[in-house]
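User: I'm putting together a small comparison set for a docking exercise, and I want a reference complex before I start. The sequence is below, and the ligand is magnesium ion. Could you produce the 3D structure with the ligand included, as structure tokens?
Assistant: Of course. I'll restate your input first, then give the structure tokens for the complex.
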Amino acid sequence: MEGSEELRETLVEMRREIDILRTETTHANLLLTALDAVLCVDGDHDPFAGVFSALMPVFEYSCAIVLTESSDDTLECVASSHPSIVGSGWKIGKLFSKALSGRIVTTVSDAAVSEWPGDLGIGFSEAQPALYLPLGVRNRRGLMMLLRDPQQPGFDRTHVSLARKFSLLASHALAAKRANQTEAESYRLQHLTEQLRASQEAFQFRANHDQLTGLPNRTYVQELVDNLIAGKSTKAACAFIDLDDFKRVNDLHGHAIGDALLRGIAQRIKSEIRATDIFGRISGDEFVIVLNPIEKRSDASALISRLRNRLKRPFKIEGVEIRTSASIGVAFYPAHGRDYDTLRRHADMAMYRAKTSAKGGIAFFNQALGREAADKLSLEHRLRTSLTKREFHCALQQKVDICSRTIMGFETLVRWIDGSGVTRSPAEFLPLASELGLLDSITNVMVDELIKQMPGLDRRFGTDVKYSINISAAQSMKTPFMHKLVQHLSDAGRAGRFILELTEESFATTGPFQTHVLPMLREAGVAISIDDFGTGYSSLAKLAELTVDELKIDRSLISSIQQRPRSQSILRAIESLGAALGISVVAEGIETADENDYLIGQTHLRIGQGFLFHRPELLSDLLNHREPGELEHHPSPSLQACNDDRAGSIRQKRALRV
Ligand code: C2E
Ligand code: MG
Ligand code: MG
């Protein structure tokens, strides 16, 4: 999730940069047109006329006037879009002085009027926006005034920056004209024009290409493919390539190596495709190839498999060997879309399918995938609506002493009660909510509900029980989110009553979780549990380094434990490690009396959770329907074993700080 947020930010940044480049390119184009016009005026024509007509589309003005110094304190109008004022004299006031000394000046109303001559008969008014451009004409100084109609907007910063470039170039152009284009000036002018053209081309390239790899960027790929499709009706294939675990490369080896890897990948792909194919990088670790033309689908499949295999070969970067893979989705034109957007979207969906089945895979779009995507979209819509209506609720499941069945705590599990009143379990919506960045809000809604109901829960279950909250790995690494959560728990005066259940993934890398979040949790007094232990990396060595309070052994290890000697050995190893490190070990998903009897009889584990004791129940139901004395109590044949091991149980409780 964090990865997708980062990508989104990069994308916004790239878009902003492209917009700026595009504007600059437009400006450069306008200036070039204007200059060309100046240069093309032949000897019989007034060069200023050329300047005016060239300027008109650039600046949008209603009246243009060129004034040059005629004496110390007077300017003379030497050219104007209103020929009747040519020859008129203008006093040099403060404003004209500024422009003559080389500054671009803009005014929106009457600021300059005092410097203008009396009635010139062309309808100047006081509220006329004006732009003053310095114009050095050989040894004479001059300026150009551009006026807009009073109801038009004033000239803005964009115009000022454009005017600055134009002022310089036009001065040269005019000087060259006046000097009948002496060779030197002509050369200089030529040189300037070439420079401008080159920078305009560079702008154009930068606006269309990704700076890291030099490949066409998102917008340019779109443009190229749309042009291709508009021009022909040939068959083509669109492949969406997404690198697997690219974030891990960045985290592990740093951004410089990550960048080099991206360049290497671009290079490899380039060497496999044809000149007629379109290949671009559309965001951080995503590439698009449009194979064009293709005869039959199998041709595209063969090429893409070859590509995939080439990408799997290790890269050697700065002496480091890096292995990577890419998940690739493919959609065909025209069967799966007649425009780039649809094709790319469908290829993206297929890629997603490839990624979820096996990394480094290839998947082809089909209509069933399309329907799945539509369902996903509808789920997304419902999730968002439900969040605004706070339709997410806490269900609580007891964590008990497996012998006495005394309640030690509760685990908070989210339930979505959608608009139709159906209760949905996390598996149905959590992955998508997480992908969409909605999980934080869902957690907040639940924590709010829990805190609000704590007084009632305390009255019913006492103040010794603790409440566990599940936090995903991505959430745990977001310092601001975790900070707010801990703050919220502390503000309620109850930080010490909570356990955060994290997965092994949170501890896997040295990131913000280890450096910022963990110390913060410790300081606030919130306990930490590793959930689903046995399903992730399960590094016992790593465990020795961690300062956690609780370990929850996953159901997969507990299920039918009495019949599985290998699982029994693993369990014993975890148990003794927990005891040695003072970590409380909890068995999850105890469903049968046989499992429980085994745990009681053959292990020292004393805390458990599972359907055998209690199914998760909505918090509101728990408070409304159950009385404290009504908690089920099943006598267990191994009760005696519990009593025999009371010391062990106490040791575990202490470790959990219950
Ligand atoms: P978990 O944290 O390991 O929670 C235990 C899950 O096992 C719960 O499923 C619970 O209903 C189920 N369970 C408990 N005892 C038994 C049993 O005896 N047999 C069987 N078959 N299942 C049992 P649930 O509520 O569907 O939650 C599934 C997972 O979704 C949770 O696994 C947790 O990883 C995640 N989850 C639930 N609520 C939240 C939440 O608010 N935030 C986050 N980030 N994840 C949550
Ligand atoms: Mg849990
Ligand atoms: Mg669990």
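The chain has 24 helices and 23 strands. The chain has a mean pLDDT of 83.
User: Thanks, that's exactly what I needed.
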